[in-house]
Amino acid sequence: MSKMIVLGVTGSIAAHKAVDLASLLTKQGGDVRVVMTADALKFVTPMPFQILSRHKVVTDLFEGEEGWKPSHIEMADQADMLLVAPATAHTIARLALGLADDALTCIALALNPKARLLIAPAMNGKMWLHPATQGHVATLVERGAEFIGPETGLLSCGYEGIGRLWPVDQVAERAWQLLGAG
Questions:
Q1: Distance CA 47, CA 29 (A)
Q2: Catalytic residue at 157?
Q3: Of 26, 19, 29, which is closest to residue 54 (Cα–Cα)?
Q4: Prediction pTM value
Q5: What is the mean pLDDT of residues 91-96?
Q6: How many other C-beta atoms lie within 10 A of the C-beta of residue 101?
Q7: Measured between alpha carbons, how far apart are the two ends of the chain, in Å?
Q8: Domains held by the chain: number
Q9: Could you tell me which of 99, 100, 91 has the C-alpha nearest to residue 15?
Q10: Active-site residue identified among 2, 157, 160, 170
């Protein structure tokens, strides 16, 4: 039986790498369901995710509801893992504070207790190292979330330092390890 992985894609320049991650997880047998934030839509369109995952992409909390149960609640109930990659500082803060103002954060807040939460940050190094972000990370770790990355290298903003999305093959590998399949 395949594992259901909800892939949350947020508004980072690294959003294009999430397309490769969705493809890899699907090829490895995952039932991948993609949820994109409004900011993610500024970097990549839903089409490649839809084709590669073979499922409709959720981009809005209230769009395309089928049946009586809201899609974000159904996804939260059925997920084996919520994988947020890339995760921006903004999304990490929203997750830590329990804000639920879009489909991704509603899924996170309603996530079934057996599901794993894996977060792969991608942002400017100063944003990652800021005490507010580090406080939010600590809060999420205390609640059982796991972080993979970020890594050090040349950032899209032109700086050299920490903040790059962890390599997608290693993110996928860690996801499967947490799901007991790797």
A1: 20
A2: yes
A3: 26
A4: 0.95
A5: 98
A6: 10
A7: 14
A8: 1
A9: 91
A10: 157
E-strand stretches of 38-170 = 81-87, 116-121, 146-147, 151-154, 160-164
Is-cis flag, bond preceding 70, omega within 30? Answer: no
Say what the alpha-carbon torsion angle 20, 26, 31, 37 is, to the nearest 10 degrees. 10
CA dihedral 53, 55, 57, 63 (to 10 degrees): -170
85: closest CA among 6, 4, 30?
6
Domain hosting 41: range is 4-178
Confidence of residue 181 (pLDDT cuts 50, 70, 90): confident
pLDDT value of residue 66: 64
* Percent above pLDDT 90 for the chain: 82
Domain harbouring 14, CATH code:
3.40.50.1950
**Bridge-based pairing state of the strands 151-154 and 160-164:** antiparallel
Tokens of 23: 């493809």
